[in-house]
Amino acid sequence: MGSIGVLGTVGLLSDEGVVSPRPPVVRALLGALAAHASEPVPSAHLMTTIWEQDLPANPKGALHLTVHRLRRWLEEQAGGSIALVTGVSGYRLDLHEGTTDLIEFRALTSTPGGTEDDLHRALGLWRGRPFENVPEDRVDSELVETLLAERQAVVRRYARSAMDGGRLEAAESLLWTACRADPMDEEAHALLIEVLSGMGQLASALSVYDRIRRRLSAELGISPGSRLTLAHQRVLKEPALTAGPDRGPQPSSLTGRGQALRSLADDLCRARVVTLTGPPGVGKSALALAAATTAADRLECDVTAVDLETQALTGVDLEAGQLAGVLPAGRGRHILVIDGYGGRVAEVKAAIQPLIACSPELVVLGTGSRVLGMPGETTRTLGPLSAADAENLLISRAAAFLPSVFHAPENRHWLSSLLAHTGGLPSAIEIAASLLRTLTPDNLAAALARDARMLLDGGDATGVTLAERIRHAHGALEEREALLLTRLARLPEEFGLAEAETLCACATLTESQVVRGLIGLVDQSLVQPVDHSYGRRYRILPPIRRFVADLCEDARERESVGLRVW
């Protein structure tokens, strides 16, 4: 009994894997026939599907030759358990007692009241994109989209079942996958917003809504539908995260940020322009959205968020009037969050000033590596998590898929080693936790000791890696600041001003320029001041240090920025 797969690579399925015909046209024919199971497929449809872009001079002859080659291959590989039959209305596969993964998938999912186990087994049949090893110009593209839509619908059903059973972590993982697979799927995004809200991650829920709202507007010119709008409104009606000390644990994205959240929300209730600065990956976006939601609940107003960092990373310019365009017409009291403006200080200031002048009830919250420098601006700086909060975050995130990973004494030993590589940056901690799905704590610690790049290469739900976020901040530096940062990154983990002046000054950097440059790097959150009883020292967080080291990977660059003493 044989089984043919199309939900991934096309070929005969076995316990050892997939066996596929070598010629692409033969794979295309096998896939086209298997997709229609035992039904006859007209010759005209097969010719159009396989040779739509380059129809041969003799299409019927080419099809007959391809059928002959496939028939011989099936005889050799399937031993007669699957036959290719010629009929009056076309060609069909005679599966005898065999099947295809598509038939199995539809059988498991065709009943509306199917069990969660059935849905799980159905999704497990997928090995990749349909007809993955068939050239795109030899596949029925409409069929591919139909199959992907069927899978997406099953993912949503499975996620709803997990939600109904209270397994929010499982539902969250499924829905992130669904939203990445189809960035325009409003139903999947609405479900994800509901799951994140149920887990207490209100900031993440609002961020998901804002991203799809902007995507729908930019790419389709439409507003969110009623299902998505309702999910968003439910989040806005959630009780404030800072209602009091008896609200229980903070969501993981805000671990250790309770006091910062309260202070920032207070600022938004009494100031017109507030900026939140901090190093890349420190969690400014999550804190800003949570604080805006909390303040909006107190002020009884709405929140609009604009993600400039993601736009900058994807090459989108801040156009004149763009900020005004995202705000509702006839707005009264309103909070505008401008997230990740980076080095675009002058642009953002120019866009904000007329809005503030003509909208007396508008409050603006900006996040970036440096302050905007506007009159009456209130500023807050967000630093890395404390050792205790960083440990709590790593344990809580790892527990989502390995509940007892750090209960064992031998694994707790590796906590401090893992956290040292993250520098207390929540983004790096989240990435480290995700790597524990594959590696044990001791193996991960050893891997990071050899090469910490895997933390830089990890990304968030938007697909933006930590390296890209650091590069975004680094790109805003002046040339001398970038040179100084490169030289400072080769100093010991903590260093003093005298060491920086002595070891980093060179022909292109005088000692006074080193001091001014250090001030600029601290202002832009790429160097952290550390106060001790014996005086102030400075440090560069490990992920930023690793990023800078990568910029100087080749020997000539290392020589050109070499220090006097090391």
TrEMBL record:
<keyword id="KW-0238">DNA-binding</keyword>
<dbReference type="GO" id="GO:0000160">
    <property type="term" value="P:phosphorelay signal transduction system"/>
</dbReference>
<dbReference type="InterPro" id="IPR051677">
    <property type="entry name" value="AfsR-DnrI-RedD_regulator"/>
</dbReference>
<dbReference type="InterPro" id="IPR001867">
    <property type="entry name" value="OmpR/PhoB-type_DNA-bd"/>
</dbReference>
<dbReference type="GO" id="GO:0003677">
    <property type="term" value="F:DNA binding"/>
</dbReference>
<dbReference type="InterPro" id="IPR005158">
    <property type="entry name" value="BTAD"/>
</dbReference>
<dbReference type="Pfam" id="PF03704">
    <property type="entry name" value="BTAD"/>
</dbReference>
<dbReference type="InterPro" id="IPR011990">
    <property type="entry name" value="TPR-like_helical_dom_sf"/>
</dbReference>
<feature type="domain" description="OmpR/PhoB-type">
    <location>
        <begin position="1"/>
        <end position="95"/>
    </location>
</feature>
<keyword id="KW-0805">Transcription regulation</keyword>
<dbReference type="InterPro" id="IPR027417">
    <property type="entry name" value="P-loop_NTPase"/>
</dbReference>
<dbReference type="InterPro" id="IPR016032">
    <property type="entry name" value="Sig_transdc_resp-reg_C-effctor"/>
</dbReference>
<keyword id="KW-0804">Transcription</keyword>
<dbReference type="InterPro" id="IPR036388">
    <property type="entry name" value="WH-like_DNA-bd_sf"/>
</dbReference>
<protein>
    <submittedName>
        <fullName>Transcriptional regulator</fullName>
    </submittedName>
</protein>
<feature type="DNA-binding region" description="OmpR/PhoB-type">
    <location>
        <begin position="1"/>
        <end position="95"/>
    </location>
</feature>
<comment type="similarity">
    <text>Belongs to the AfsR/DnrI/RedD regulatory family.</text>
</comment>
<dbReference type="GO" id="GO:0006355">
    <property type="term" value="P:regulation of DNA-templated transcription"/>
</dbReference>
